[in-house]
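ERR on first pass: missing label on line 2. Operator R.T. fixed the label and resubmitted. Corrected input:
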Amino acid sequence: MLWIAWKMLIGNRVKYLGIVFGVVFAALLIAQQSSIFCGLMFLTVSQIRDVEGPGIWVMDPNVQFIDDIKPLPDTDLFRVKGVSGVEWAVRFYKGLARARMEQGEFHQMILLGIDDATLVGAPEGIFMGSLADLRKPHAVLLDDAGYKQIWPGEPYILGRVFEMNDRRAVVVGITKASRTFQTFPIVYTLYSRAVLFAPPERKVLSFVLAQPRPGLNATAVCQEITAQTGLQALTREAFMQKTIRHFLAKTGIPVNFAITVLLGFIVGTAIAGQTFYLFTVENIKQFGALKAMGTSNWTILVMVLAQAMQVGAIGYGLGVGLAALFGWGSRGFTKLAFFMPWQVLAITAVAVFFIVVLASLLSIRRVLVVDPAIVFRG
Amino acid sequence: MMTTDQPRPNNALPSDVAVHVRGVTKDFGTGGSLTKALRGVDLDVPYGEMLILAGPSGCGKTTLVSIVAGTLAPTDGDVVVLGKNLIAMPNRLKVRFRRDNVGFVFQSYNLLPALTAAENAAVPLLIAGWRRARAVEAASEVLDTLGLGDRLTRLPTELSGGQQQRVAIARAIVHQPRLLVCDEPTSALDAKNGRITMELIARIAVQPDRAVIVVTHDSRVYSFADRIALMEDGRIESVEAGMHQAHPANPA
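pass 2 clean. output:
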């Protein structure tokens, strides 16, 4: 009987395509918007992701997210180093600096200062120049997106000079840093140089990056650091989660995306539901004939649900596929934030399931109450 | 009049009676909109007989045949079909009863437009749980006997009205039902195709162990009937012997 349901469904190609279109539209919109949302959230933690190596971030207890800098005294580095579970710890500066370029224009920049001795916290994607050059006088690394933003259309040239806080900065390398939520150019330099580039403050240490001793649980070491120093210590993953939670809670971004996703859900349900209902009404005598010939209501119910699920599966596949294609296609020539983790696929699948179930509810009711004697009425 | 509280014991029926209807009434609506479609119908149809149910529009033919086929419950009365009391039968069993015992030929064919002729004819077997290939093969054999052996893979839209009705007849008899109910089988056909259709029903569908009830307006097909029950205003006015074969008149 499922085979008959399938043949009935595809027999009316116009309505079949109409129902599929509704589901594809909904799946595409839900998957695409959710992926852009995830992409944006991913941007908020890009600077945590880019700092590979240290498993623990130590900061002021009131810090809420990566850009929420509450400087610590330099002595806190030694307090962290003194915790028994810590293998090593280094300083990390993060702040904003205003740069004056060769032609006199100004650019706001994200300034990152990495440990002078170990260079822990350096980016990995240096594709022009070398990390070692950072030890040269006035040396800085610039991210490629920032380079293009400052000198649009110009080729990469090392040795370009600009000023921060009246101090000379020389570009000695270009790196592929992940884009940030703020979209400012990112400048990497040594910690000792970064504090000179930055506006003068009494306390300048933004974060202490630490590594737990081998074999020790990072979360336990974090708890130990907090207990002994009173500072907030988070694993890399926990800090990313805390940052994302902040943006979810404190900005309107989730609500805006949720509205679009909800709209996709409603419009998709409406299109699929209406077309599915019309399809059922058009076939009501066929369903009546099947009932007269001895098809039970249960079988009819399974047939309608199978039709809905078949449409849902096809619509889901096409919709998610189109969303992925959209994300892949827009990588090269747009600055769209697009990240499609498995959770997006799962959420879209659940949404599509509800869409096809809702869309088929009216039809199911109509078919179940149809009197098999309808077939005798003309 | 017999009521649902006093069903006639099945063993009291003559063994050759396929359909036994006594005192059946059917009301539609309530209060001021009450319509009495059947006003106490008595009817017996023996096995091996083709009974034509005739009468003007709105006289209750379709209502009566719907009750006999188990697709509609009467308001009152006693209905025993193939030895089963349909009044006392739960709906779930009625569905199974129709599946196993009743074949339908509908006025508007009601073929599934997306299925081929052979697949349409196989539908009752599929409902009964047969495997698709086997069901289509069995249906193809029946269609072959009805002269549609070369139209097995055609869709209904690719068939003429007469051919569609032959597919519907094949569908009605493919699972060897013991009761065949035909609702205006010739009304959508021209005279020639109507005659061919009735010839097929008389030749192939009427069997010693099967009863056939044909609802029709078309007086041209009366010649195929063993008996003709004339209905008027919710009652059977007369039951006459048809021209096809003489049978004892119904007591009603």
